[in-house]
Design a protein that fits this description.
274 residues, 10 helices
């Protein structure tokens, strides 16, 4: 029960897989590889076991509240809490720089709305000195947004979750209104940019809430670099292993006092709103 626990969502491949691998090598605790597809998850576990590592597996579909609840119940039953949580699950259709309302909504369900489910169900299991790492992107910087009213709103020190949700609703309405409206909001890949800007903003709001609750939880977001993965059709500057570098720094090496920041792939802090 007292074993330390690290969890990585969406980790059967890509950056998530490499984060699990790095944790297995360096972390003195139980490391959970999670995936929504059990067969692919088990295959990933086998790859790591072949390296002499001992990750644990649990099925987890972050877009399915029942799946999240079942995972939370399992962790509650078998462990005393969560020490490290890496919110890595995410999707992007690199072949669709402009997407329909329906496709935009589906992407946001995975990349953003799922975090609200995790916050509600998983965060109560976080230990008081837990670390949460949200995988963002350079497309998660505020400068990707082209609407001045949202540039002004999202930098407010008292930004609320309701305002972040309104930001997303505003984008979805733009997507519903057609191509020109879509592009005017955040350019090509607007759905992905909006999802990551919203994730970044949520990170800062939740850190403020943890602080107000008197908890020593740290929550940071990180741009892992432009990584060669299936999601980018193999294009990118870095390997998935290199993409795990900064997330692993936040999970294992950063001081606990590093809170509510946006960290670049080389581990230095950047101003999210520049």
């Amino acid at each position: 029960m007292n074993t330390k626990v690290a969890i990585v969502t969406g980790s059967n491949k890509g950056i998530g897989f490499e984060i699990v691998k790095g944790l297995c090598y360096k972390y003195d605790g139980a490391v959970y590889l999670t995936a929504r597809n059990e067969e692919r998850g088990r295959q990933a576990i086998k790859q790591l076991e072949n390296l002499g590592l001992k990750p644990l597996f649990h099925i987890l579909d972050v877009t399915n509240e029942t799946s999240v609840q079942e995972f939370a119940q399992y962790i509650y039953k078998h462990h005393s809490g969560i020490d490290i949580l890496v919110n890595n699950a995410g999707v992007l259709d690199f072949d669709k720089p402009i997407t329909s309302y329906e496709d935009s909504k589906k992407l946001l369900d995975t990349n953003f709305y799922s975090l609200l489910t995790i916050s509600k169900i998983i965060y109560p299991l976080l230990k008081d000195d837990a670390r949460v790492i949200n995988i963002s992107s350079d497309w998660g910087l505020l400068s990707n947004i082209r609407k001045q009213n949202w540039l002004d709103t999202l930098i407010k020190e008292d930004l609320s979750l309701d305002e972040i949700l309104q930001f997303i609703d505003d984008f979805l309405q733009a997507a519903k209104n057609g191509r020109n409206s879509y592009i005017s909001f955040a350019g090509h890949y607007g759905d992905y940019k909006v999802s990551k800007v919203a994730l970044s903003a949520l990170t800062f709001v939740q850190q403020r809430e943890f602080n107000e609750q008197g908890k020593n939880v740290s929550i940071n977001c990180v741009h892992p670099g432009f990584i060669k993965t299936d999601m980018t059709n193999g294009m990118g500057d870095f390997s998935p292993e290199r993409g795990a570098y900064a997330p692993l720094f936040l999970a294992l090496e950063a001081p606990q006092s590093l809170k509510g920041t946006f960290v670049w792939h080389d581990c230095h802090q950047v101003n999210w709103d520049d």
